[in-house]
Structure formats: C-alpha cells, structure tokens
Amino acid sequence: MPSRPAANAAALVPIFGDQLSLNLPSLRAADRSLDIVVMAEVAEETTYVRHHRKKIVFILSAMRHFAEELRIAGWRVHYVRLDDPENGGSFTSEVARAARATGARRILVTEPGEWRVLKMIESWREALALPVEILPDDRFIASAKEFAAWAGERKSLRMEFFYREMRRKTCLLMDGDKPEGGKWNFDAENRKPAKADLFIPKPLKFSPDRLTKDVIELVRARFPDTFGDLDPFWFGVTRADAERQLQHFLDTGLQSFGDFQDAMLLEEPFLYHSLLSPLLNAGLLDALDICRRVEAAYKAGRVPLNAAEGFIRQIIGWREYVRGIYWLKMPEYAQRNALNHTRPLPGFYWTGDTEMACLRAAIGQTRREAYAHHIQRLMVTGNFALLAGLDPHQLHEWYLAVYADAFEWVELPNTIGMSQFADGGLLASKPYA
Ligand code: FAD
Ligand code: DLZ
C-alpha cells in the first residue's frame, strides 16, 4: 500500500445510478472546492441482467440530469458516457481511469445498494492501491446495524413488529405512544375490489427533453433486441419531475390508495398507485419526506387514515424491512430455494405470448411500461411461478431486469421471500399459493 495521503488530498467521490441525492453522505463529507465526483455509464451495469430498455433510459437520463445539477451547485464532475470510446465498461475501470486523469489520491463513497457492488468497492483498496472510505447510506430510516439488532435471536422476523418500531422511531401517525386511530394497521379496510366505472386518476407523463432523447437514441442503437418497449418514454428523470409526481399522487391517488391497494382491473395498469418507486429508489425523492407529507394530508383532513397508514406502511414498513433482510442475509439469501423448485422460466415471461389472460395482461404491461403494481407482481407473475415450481433464481433475475424500480436490495427479498417462499418462511408467514 502507498503511504497514507494527506487528509486534504483530493478525493474521488463515485456516485452510482441509485445514489442521485444531493444529501448523499459522501457528498456531505466531501469538499466541493477540492474533490471530484465520478459518475459512469458502464456496460457491466447495463448488462448484468437483461434490463428493460426503459429502465436503462431512466437511470442514464436521471444520472445525466443529476450530473448537471451537481455542476450547477459548484461540483467538479467527471462523467463517463456509455459510448465514450475509452470507457472500460465497469465501475472499477472507470474509477481507476478517473483517478489517473485527476490525480485524486483517495476514494470517498456511500455504501452501494447491492452486495455485488459493495464487494467491488472493497476490492479497490488493493486493485487501485488507494484508501477507500465507505460511508453508511443514511437515506434509509433503519440502518443495517439497527435492523440486525432488532432481528437479534428472533426465529421469525415479522414485518408488522418491525413496522411498529419504525412508527415509534419516526413518530409518524402516533398519538403519544399509541397508534393514531387506535390500531397499527388498517389493512382489513384496504381490500375493496375495483369496478370498471371507478374514476381513476391518470398518471403524470413527462415529455423527454434533449438529454433524455439522446439517451433514448443511445439505448435504441445499443440494445436493439433487448426486452421492453422504448416508446413512448414518459418517466420523470429530475428532482423537479419527482416532486411534481409526488404532488400529483398526494392530490389525486392517495385518497383512494388504501381502499383499492389490493385491486386489479384490466386496462388500468396504475389504479391509485403512486408510481414513485423508481424515483425514490434512484434517490430523487426522500422516504421520510414522502411519509411526512402523506401524514400532513391526513392531518389536514384531505385523505382518510386507512389511505395514509396503508401508504406509510409500504415505505417505513415493507421497504425498510426488505432492505434489512437483504443486508442481514446476503450473500447466501440469493441462493435460497427452500421448496426445491427447478423448472426453467417459461419464454412467455419475455414475450407475454400465453393464453393465460392475467399473465398476458401483466407481462404485456410490463413490456410496455417497465411497471406493474404490487398485486400483479405478487399474485399474477409471482403466484404462477410458485404454483408452477419455477426456479426462484431465474425468476429473481427476471424481476430485477424488467421493472424500472428494480435494485437487488429491494427486489430480491420480495421475490425470494415474499413471493416464492424460497427462504423457507424467514420473511413471509406462509406461501401465497
Ligand atoms: P405503491 O403501491 O404506490 O407503494 C408506495 C411505495 O411503497 C412504493 O413506491 C415502494 O417504495 C413502497 N413499497 C410498496 N410495497 C413494497 C414492498 N413490498 N417492498 C418494498 N417497497 C415497497 N419494489 C421496488 O421498489 N423495487 C423492486 O425491484 C421490487 N420488486 C418486487 C418484486 C416482487 C416479486 C414483488 C411482489 C414486489 C416487488 N416490489 C419492488 C414491491 C412493490 O411491488 C413495488 O414497490 C411497487 O409496485 C412500486 O409501485 P408504486 O411506486 O406505484 O407503489
Ligand atoms: C441499473 C443501472 C444501469 C442500467 N446502469 C448504470 C450505469 O451505467 N451506471 C451506474 O452508475 N448505475 C447504473 N445502474 C444502477 C446500478 O446498477 C446500481 O446503482 C448499483 O448496482 C447499486 O449498487
């Protein structure tokens, strides 16, 4: 190892495609007059599963917009595009190249969302012969350490009890030390069937700007045969878009979110769902801020308690809980197959070409939108896989590929645990089939 660089030696600050937050710990710790942010579009990340083309456009366009935001805020950004002829194709090659180009002598990074990438970063100490400081990602409500302490020696890790801890910790929907409305969970009120004559709000759609159009053409040229329609592309890709999406949901969808949370209706891909997951997971929204605004809508009398509680539970309950399981149990969790299911994933998961109507609808929509709501994922594509005995690992790679919000820390426990019971009941109390 080289001698330790001076504390004021310039640092490289790598930022990955799901770390697009201005308050990222590594940005807070860095010095914008000295340190250099590195962002890289790399072949390894765009191909480690067969990502939906809209997912690739979303991430790369959001990265390019975020780099602009950082530059405007006074940061020096070393940005590598996918079609840069010198691009070596991996985070490691691009951080090494940036270190050579800038003379930076240390690396300051926020812990990544995936175990695979964490191992890669840890290898940089030796591979790049530079000191690497990895900061905990505090954009979550519970740290991995806190979750491990909660899990302790418990035999079963039920979300409901963890969720209550998170309600106490955040004081969301609390009346002193009691839950607002006298109950922790209003799920029993959240199972109304949707009827075709319901008024369902339309999602907010954003027109691609020049940056996004460039990325669409890059992805069209580079991934001509990959899964998923490219057009029309209407996702939000900036913090301002994300804010508008959130406000639109608060104004139109939240009111009925609880009632129809578990509903499915043909030709209605979005119902009262928020469509916030890609924006939130990429870092363009903050989980606690969303929940506080949902709580404020309830307190102002604009939405009922079952809607506010149901929504907040998804974020401070399920979302935090699956992340806790991921970091507690990786890497062995990814290999679990408690029911010994080995049937290969049928081709129709990629084509939608099947006579089974619900699967055809859910997969067709997935191809078009890179989105399916929770019940389609759990009860249609997930439950079929469980009944048919599909290999959970192949299914995991499918879910990780086809949804714009899919990152392994959140996708894997939902697939292996909640949907397939492949973890033998660590996460779910019983199989859904
Ligand atoms: P809404 O219905 O509006 O819910 C609000 C928010 O709650 C979501 O944006 C999300 O952040 C959070 N949330 C809700 N349910 C869950 C859950 N079970 N786990 C974690 N967060 C949750 N979610 C992902 O973000 N990425 C994934 O890769 C992913 N893969 C999944 C795979 C399977 C097999 C299943 C059953 C579920 C998966 N989910 C995943 C959870 C859930 O389906 C999506 O979060 C949700 O459909 C996103 O759409 P929305 O933003 O409109 O959600
Ligand atoms: C999903 C994705 C894709 C498709 N491409 C990139 C990329 O080119 N550069 C990047 O920084 N991130 C990308 N991502 C998101 C990463 O896969 C994700 O940030 C890490 O896996 C999290 O550990």
Structure characterization notes:
This protein has helices spanning 25-29, 43-47, 53-72, 91-102, 115-127, 144-151, 159-170, 210-222, 239-257, 277-282, 287-299, 305-329, 348-351, 357-369, 374-388, 392-402, 408-419; strands at residues 11-14, 36-40, 76-80, 106-110, 132-135, 174-175, 178-179. It is α/β, with parallel strands linked by helices and 433 residues long. Strand 4 (106-110), helix 5 and strand 5 form a beta-alpha-beta unit. Helix 3 (53-72) runs antiparallel to helix 8 (210-222) and helix 14 (357-369) crosses helix 15. The protein starts with 10 loop residues before the first strand and ends in a 14-residue tail after the last helix. 44% of the residues are buried. The mean pLDDT is 94. The structure holds flavin-adenine dinucleotide (FAD) and ligand DLZ. Residues 16-18, 40-42, 45-46, 51, 56, 59, 112-114, 117, 407 line the site of ligand DLZ.
